[in-house]
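Exercise 7b. Backbone tokens:
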């Protein structure tokens, strides 16, 4: 696995198939991390309440002892003798996955169960067979050995039969129903196999759900990210990162400055630099004030992440850029030279060239069954370790980008139009319904009436514009669309978007995206992007759609027009409507860019 995948695809608690066996990635307290490779981002550390980040360890073969895994699911079957039982009972030779009786390769169970609180367990085959075929309350005594059979006549679950030596048998038909297990009195046992045995959480009341072992619903990451902005992106702050805790302790203990200056000279912070010991002390004190200020609650962030305080700080820095820049700084943002012959496109207020940026992406937690949402995420986050650790896994990526803001006056006028409000209202109602449906199990039906979607016309507009520009710039700048990402800044007083190339592989260092922010190129690319989305090969059904996408959270949006690779989108390709850009045939005023560019 690549390190970046350990944050987004194969993180703690996720299932991974290696050869003919299946495993679950173990908790952070089993990872072999190197403290010297720590990643620092003070703003994100403060928000998540940790003391730093660690990149996923990459131990060299043959040791391979960086990120550990545990065998899961524990139930395996033999295709020859059809036995279905725990792996350890097959008598497989050490290091292999073969039936001790048949010497044939074993197959991990196709089915697992999980709940919305992140718990994970083997499918309860014994209970499924006996409780489905016997009256409730019956006792099951004697010897019971299970076997797995497939009729092969169809690909349906009806052909998958579980048999017991007691004579009972049941197919897997109906196992994926929302209440299939709870109706049989099969509860969630609160198991957390990624943390090892004995870590069960008793008393979980969530409904256990049957999932395919490779289902995407078996693991949803809860990622958090932040851009490095001044002063934390500056060379001096980078130099003090590894020594911050030591210097902070000395200052808190009121050690005299002479001693502190000796420590600073001894640890090499000032080596080959223009800084002084006093500069270092002031930088440490500045970070102390940040860490001691009121800590935001990462569990109760804004319903849309584009409006968080972290984003607001970045928005202000991106709008006004950097006045001075040092060679070692991680952030550089300037305005392009004005072109009297080619002004900015109508509706675009500002363009900023971000020639240097660094992003830290961390895995805070994960959920299962239902995607993370702002209403229930605080109650559903699964534990990342058995014992509390003060760090989180993260990666840091560097790149470049273009930051755009929309014309506030034109935007306010557009938002008040009847057609605009009506289309946004369709998505807002669908989003409210989805939030309430997911919250029922956690909050109860009596509490969900107050849940409302915060979705606004400007969010849908800015999000769809970002998608249209990414598709356009992937052609203009020669990047694959998956190497470009969006970062949205949307609230009552923010209306901006950043398109950037922060990626951990070589595709993020080709150069060329920044050039798209220059006035002439921007004017041409916006015009071309709007022309491209004005027609879709799936029209008229695409433009006339009143509900599409997951939970009906898109309108005029499909893979033939504005959808992107999921790595490029903040919201998994929802909240999109290209009519917000160009209008509809019946009502052109819905389009923010209805005026020709």
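Sequence design result:
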């Amino acid at each position: 696995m690549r390190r970046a995948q350990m944050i987004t695809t194969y993180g703690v608690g996720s299932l991974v198939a290696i050869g003919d066996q299946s495993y679950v990635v173990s908790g952070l307290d089993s990872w072999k991390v190197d403290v010297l490779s720590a990643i620092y981002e003070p703003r994100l550390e403060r928000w998540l309440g940790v003391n730093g980040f660690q990149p996923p360890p990459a131990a060299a073969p043959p040791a391979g002892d960086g990120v550990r895994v545990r065998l899961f699911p524990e139930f395996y079957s033999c295709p020859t003798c059809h036995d279905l039982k725990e792996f350890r009972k097959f008598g497989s030779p050490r290091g292999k996955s073969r039936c001790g009786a048949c010497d044939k390769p074993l197959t991990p169970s196709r089915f697992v169960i999980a709940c919305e609180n992140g718990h994970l367990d083997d499918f309860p085959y014994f209970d499924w067979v006996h409780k489905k075929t016997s009256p409730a309350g019956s006792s099951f005594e004697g010897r019971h050995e299970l076997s797995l059979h497939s009729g092969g006549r169809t690909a349906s679950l009806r052909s998958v039969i579980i048999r017991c030596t007691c004579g009972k048998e049941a197919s897997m038909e109906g196992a994926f129903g929302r209440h299939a297990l709870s109706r049989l009195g099969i509860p969630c046992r609160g198991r957390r196999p990624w943390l090892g045995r004995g870590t069960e959480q008793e008393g979980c009341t969530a409904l256990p759900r049957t999932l395919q072992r490779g289902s995407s619903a078996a693991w949803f990451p809860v990622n958090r990210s932040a851009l490095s902005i001044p002063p934390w992106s500056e060379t001096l702050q980078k130099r003090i990162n590894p020594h911050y805790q030591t210097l902070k302790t000395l200052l808190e203990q009121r050690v005299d400055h002479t001693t502190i200056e000796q420590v600073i000279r001894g640890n090499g912070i000032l080596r080959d630099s223009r800084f002084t010991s006093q500069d270092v002390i002031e930088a440490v004190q500045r970070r102390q004030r940040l860490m001691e200020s009121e800590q935001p609650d990462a569990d109760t962030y804004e319903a849309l992440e584009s409006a968080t305080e972290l984003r607001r700080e970045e928005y202000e820095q991106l709008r006004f850029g950097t006045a001075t820049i040092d060679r070692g700084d991680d952030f550089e943002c300037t305005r392009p030279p004005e072109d009297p012959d080619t002004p900015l496109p109508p509706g675009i207020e500002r363009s900023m060239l971000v020639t240097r940026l660094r992003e830290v992406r961390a895995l805070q937690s994960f959920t299962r069954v239902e995607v993370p949402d702002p209403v229930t995420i605080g109650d559903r986050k699964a534990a990342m370790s058995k014992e509390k650790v003060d760090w989180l896994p993260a990666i840091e990526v560097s790149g470049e980008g273009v930051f755009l803001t929309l014309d506030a006056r034109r935007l306010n006028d557009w938002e008040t139009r009847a057609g605009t409000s009506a289309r946004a209202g369709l998505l807002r109602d669908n989003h409210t319904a989805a939030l309430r449906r997911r919250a029922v199990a956690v909050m109860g039906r009596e509490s969900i009436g107050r849940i409302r979607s915060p979705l606004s016309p400007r969010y849908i507009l800015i999000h769809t514009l970002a998608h249209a520009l990414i598709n356009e710039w992937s052609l203009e700048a020669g990047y694959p669309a998956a190497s470009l990402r969006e970062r949205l800044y949307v609230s009552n007083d923010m209306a901006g978007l950043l398109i950037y190339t922060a990626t951990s592989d070589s595709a993020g260092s080709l150069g060329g995206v920044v050039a798209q922010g220059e006035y002439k190129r921007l004017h041409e690319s916006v015009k071309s992007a709007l022309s491209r989305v004005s027609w879709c090969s799936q029209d008229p059904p695409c433009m006339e759609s009143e509900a599409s996408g997951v939970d009906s959270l898109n309108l005029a949006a499909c893979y033939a027009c504005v959808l992107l690779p999921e790595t490029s989108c903040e919201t998994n390709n929802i909240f999109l409507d290209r009519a917000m850009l160009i209008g509809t045939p019946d009502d052109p005023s819905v389009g923010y860019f209805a005026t020709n560019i």
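Instructor comment: The chain has a mean pLDDT of 88. The chain is about 25% helix and 20% strand.
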